[in-house]
Structures are given as structure tokens and as C-alpha cells.
Automatic annotation (TrEMBL), chain A:
SMART domains per the UniProt record, alphabetical: AAA
GO cellular component, one term: plasma membrane
Subcellular location(s) per record: Cell membrane
Membrane topology qualifier: Peripheral membrane protein
Full protein name: ABC-2 type transport system ATP-binding protein
From TrEMBL, chain B:
GO biological process: response to antibiotic
ABC transmembrane type-2 domain sequence ranges: 25-250
KW Transport (keyword) present: yes
Name the UniProt record assigns to this protein: Transport permease protein
Record membrane topology: Multi-pass membrane protein
TM ranges: 24-46, 58-80, 101-129, 135-157, 169-187, 224-247
Length: 261, 252
């Protein structure tokens, strides 16, 4: 991945550095001093309930929103003064699949490849369609896609251009268990190839499955930040109890449908 | 300005143009209102209105402005949908020329309105509209109509970016569609009572309609053309500035 290494020129510091971030909408204080760092090539999960400020944080980091106070840097670039360079370093997958419904899946991918000024957008589109199992639906209008297909296309669009930092805002919201696992698999692959992933989620198991580090955002502040093991140590040591393990409904569902897709 | 402004805008324009070619109903509904009005005015009211010339020749310029007014509401609608679907945020988080998306919508509006205008003129020809105007006069008419479209399209961008619902994004067009009725578009202004006549004679539609009518009839355009151009450029500049302010506010 030479392109990634080239893009990681300012590789000294963390991929994302957030200090004292504040944002209010009128009297509603959404962020009240948020601090965190995301190491390069890691998966960082911002965990929190609805309205905790996860999306606001992502929007500030993606230069879509200005913070009231505090600083944030992405790939070494300041989000307020070096917006252009920040946008050149990131890729955003928003909370709702932001795809063009009237275009086909292939046309959506070609459009993004063109906007990223890459050579041979058609070849890039075809290889992503293949990788995301969308080849059969490539020329169909996106309005005919299922929720899972849309999300796959959405994420495929975000991968074009090999951005060193990827934001995924609730990437598995509204997906069925299989599609969710597919997304997880893909996020792991991304991080494996050196991309920094910042994802938000309200599912505890998602953070547990994916993240190298987890920060819990609550009422506009980070109230805990660490690896899963570190977070577990914040609680009293586990007591050993013997209980019959019941399969979860998700495990039952996946076992019944097997690999038939 | 970004070095990729032109190629980015082109790529985004291809996208919005596909929205038109794949839902031709937007063009059909755009021409429906003006064609219906044309039929009604020519075959129902027209006989009672004395204008000193063939009525369809008299009223076509006003109908063309109504066509534009009904066409631009789709620009507001499409922009609003881009905002709601989150695709605007996707584009804005990418390293592209940020105003490219607005220009793509504007260029698309120009193309869509031009198609609609050609259809309406075609229907008018079938209904008996005739003009002895030469190529230069037709070019001048086209120029004024395109300038009006450009100005009104930028006006449409503002509700497209700021509206709270789909309905209100399109609703701003109603007053614009109505404006030609209180002008010289359908009846001579001399027949109107004092204050109404004053308004009719001092609002932009009258000067644009009078100019196009004179060009079609090979009459001298007089000062009307300068008034018309001043209105178009004035609205264009004001709408462009306000639209850009609204856009910057959206993209913080």
C-alpha cells in the first residue's frame, strides 16, 4: 500500500487528535470538552447513546461543522485552518447511506472516482463491485437495492481513493446480522491494511468486536477511554459462576440460515 | 478556487442531468401548467381581450416566463433532496471544489428549462403562434430567457438549501408563477386600476415580456430591454450572493 504510506506523510503524531472540543446548538450543549487521540492504523470506537454527540464530533472532524472551542487535527492537519488538506486525507460514511438513488451502483462509484481525480474510474468501480458482491446489481438503479446493498455501496464509495483516515458513523445501524458481520469483516480488513478507522456505534458488542480502543461519550464528555481490557479493569473483578450457556438469538438465526445467501 | 473546479462540476452535472433524463416527468409537469394556461387563455378568455394583434402572439412571452418559474422549482426540490439524503455532506467532505455541486444544479436547470421552453414554443406554433423575427431577434429572445432562467435558478437555490420540508422547498415558485398575471403578459396594463397598473408597469415581468414581444414582432425594443436586463442581472447578483451565504452556512 504505497499510496497509503505516501499519504501518511505527517506520520509522526496520531491520526486524529482532539482537544477540548465544544459545540452547542443554541442552549443545548452537545459537546462539553471532548479529548481523545486515535493512533494510526487503529480502529477507534466512539460509543454512546443517541444524542451523546457522536455524529457532531464526526461532522467537526470531517470539516462539515465548526466547533465553538477546542482544536482537532486529522492526519496532522487542523480542521479549521487546513480544511482542504483534511478533506484530502479522509473519507466519510455518514449515518444514512448517502448514495444517489437515481444512478446505478456502478455510476455512483464512477462518480466518486472521478471526483477524486483517479485514473480509470470504470476499472475502479468494477473491482469494488466485485469485492462487495454487487456485480449482479451493478447497472440497476440504487433505488431498487436492499438496505444491506445500499450500505455496502456506501462503504465501497468511501474506500475509493485509499484515504488514510476513514470515519464510519454508525456503519451497521439498520442492517441485518449477516450484513453487520460483513461490514465488521471489511472494517477489520481496512485497519489491517493501515487505514485509521474512527467509528461511532451504540452497540456495545460492535465496539467490543472491532475496536482497538473504545471511548465512551456521555453527555458531551468522554467519560472512559481505553482498550477493552482496560475498561474491564474499571469494574470489580469478575466472579466465577457456572451457568448454562444459552445460544443468543443471533447465533440461532445465523446457524439456521447457514451460509445460504 | 480549486484547480479541479471544471472537471468536478462536469462530473456532478452529468449526475444531475441523469436525474432529468431518467425522470422525464419533471419536464412534462414543467410544461403542463404553461400549456394549460395557454390553451385556456387563447381559447377561453382570449376572445374577450383586445390587444390589437393575434392573442397567442401577445401572450406567449408571459407563458414562457411561467414555464421558467415552474421549471426552477425542481432545482429547489433536487437540491433539497441532496441535502436530506446526505449526499451533499458526502461531496462536501471530499477534496473537491465545494461550489461545484451548486453549479451542477444550475447548469442542469438551464438545460431542463431550455428543453421545456422549446416544447412550449412548439405547442404555441401548433396553436397558431407566428413570428417574422430573424435569427438575431430569436437569439436575443433566447438570451433574455436564459438570463432570466439563470437569475431565477439562483433564486431557487436559496429555498433548496434552507427549506424545512419538500413542500416549502417548491412553494416559493407559486408567487413567481403568479407574477406574470399582474403584468403586461396577458392584458395591456392600461386596463388596470391605478395602483395595480403602477405595480404592473414597475415589476420585472412587464419589461421582460415587452422586450420579447417587441423582438418577436420585429418592433424596436426601446428602453424596455435595458430595464429587463437590469432586473435580470440585479436578481441574479442578489440571489447568487444569498445562495452562496446559505451554502457556506450549510457547510460551516
Amino acid at each position: 500500500m504505497t499510496t497509503l504510506i505516501e499519504k501518511n506523510r505527517q506520520s509522526a503524531g496520531p491520526a486524529i487528535r482532539v482537544r477540548g472540543l465544544e459545540k452547542s446548538y443554541g442552549k443545548l450543549e452537545v459537546l462539553r470538552g471532548v479529548d481523545f487521540d486515535v493512533a494510526r492504523g487503529s480502529i477507534f470506537a466512539l460509543l454512546g447513546s443517541n444524542g451523546a454527540g457522536k455524529t457532531t464530533t464526526i461532522r467537526i472532524l470531517a470539516t462539515l461543522l465548526k466547533a465553538d472551542a477546542g482544536t482537532a487535527a486529522v492526519n496532522g492537519f487542523d480542521v479549521t485552518t487546513q480544511g482542504g488538506q483534511v478533506r484530502g486525507s479522509i473519507s466519510l460514511t455518514g449515518q444514512f447511506a448517502a448514495v444517489d438513488e437515481i444512478l446505478s451502483g456502478r455510476e455512483n462509484l464512477i462518480l466518486v472516482a472521478k471526483l477524486r481525480h483517479l485514473e480509470d474510474p470504470a476499472a475502479i468501480a468494477d473491482s469494488l463491485l466485485d469485492r462487495f458482491s454487487l456485480t449482479d446489481a451493478a447497472t440497476r438503479r440504487v433505488s431498487t437495492y436492499s438496505g444491506g446493498m445500499r450500505r455496502r455501496l456506501d462503504i465501497a464509495m468511501s474506500l475509493i481513493g485509499d484515504s488514510p483516515v476513514i470515519f464510519l458513523d454508525e456503519p451497521t445501524a439498520g442492517l441485518d446480522p449477516e450484513a453487520r458481520i460483513e461490514v465488521w469483516q471489511m472494517v477489520k480488513e481496512l485497519a489491517g491494511s493501515g487505514t485509521t478507522v474512527l467509528l461511532t456505534t451504540q452497540y456495545l458488542d460492535e465496539a467490543e468486536q472491532l475496536a482497538d480502543r473504545i471511548a465512551i461519550l456521555h453527555q458531551g464528555r468522554i467519560i472512559a477511554n481505553g482498550t477493552l481490557a482496560e475498561l474491564k479493569q474499571l469494574f470489580p473483578p469478575a466472579e466465577v459462576e457456572y451457568v448454562e450457556k444459552q445460544p443468543t438469538l443471533e447465533e440461532i438465526f445465523l446457524a439456521i440460515i447457514g451460509d445460504r445467501r | 478556487m480549486n484547480t479541479y473546479f471544471l472537471s468536478d462540476t462536469l462530473a456532478l452535472t452529468v449526475r444531475t442531468l441523469r436525474h432529468i433524463t431518467r425522470s422525464l416527468d419533471t419536464i412534462i409537469t414543467t410544461v403542463l401548467t404553461p400549456v394549460a394556461l395557454m390553451l385556456m387563455f387563447v381559447y377561453v378568455f382570449g376572445g374577450a381581450i383586445s390587444t390589437g394583434s393575434k392573442y397567442i402572439n401577445f401572450m406567449l412571452p408571459g407563458i414562457l416566463l411561467i414555464t421558467i418559474a415552474s421549471g426552477i422549482s425542481y432545482t429547489a426540490f433536487r437540491l433539497f433532496m441532496d441535502l436530506k439524503s446526505g449526499i451533499l455532506e458526502r461531496f462536501q467532505s471530499m477534496p473537491i471544489a465545494r461550489s461545484g455541486l451548486l453549479w451542477a444544479h444550475v447548469v442542469t436547470s438551464m438545460v431542463a428549462n431550455l428543453i421545456a421552453l422549446v416544447i412550449v414554443v412548439g405547442v404555441a406554433l401548433l396553436m397558431g403562434f407566428r413570428s417574422s423575427a430573424g435569427v438575431l431577434a430569436w437569439l436575443a429572445v433566447t438570451g433574455i430567457l436564459l438570463l432570466s432562467t439563470l437569475a431565477l435558478t439562483w433564486l431557487a437555490v436559496i429555498p433548496g438549501l434552507t427549506a424545512g420540508s419538500v413542500e416549502s422547498a417548491g412553494a416559493f415558485a407559486y408567487p413567481l408563477i403568479f407574477l406574470p398575471f399582474v403584468s403586461s403578459a396577458f392584458v395591456p396594463t392600461e386596463t388596470m386600476p391605478g395602483p395595480v397598473r403602477w405595480f404592473a408597469e414597475h415589476q420585472p415581468v412587464t419589461s421582460i415580456v415587452d422586450t420579447i414581444r417587441a423582438l418577436f414582432a420585429e418592433q424596436p425594443v426601446g428602453n424596455a430591454i435595458w430595464t429587463a436586463l437590469a432586473w435580470c442581472v440585479g436578481v441574479l447578483v442578489a440571489a447568487y450572493v444569498l445562495a452562496m451565504v446559505a451554502y457556506r452556512r450549510k457547510s460551516a
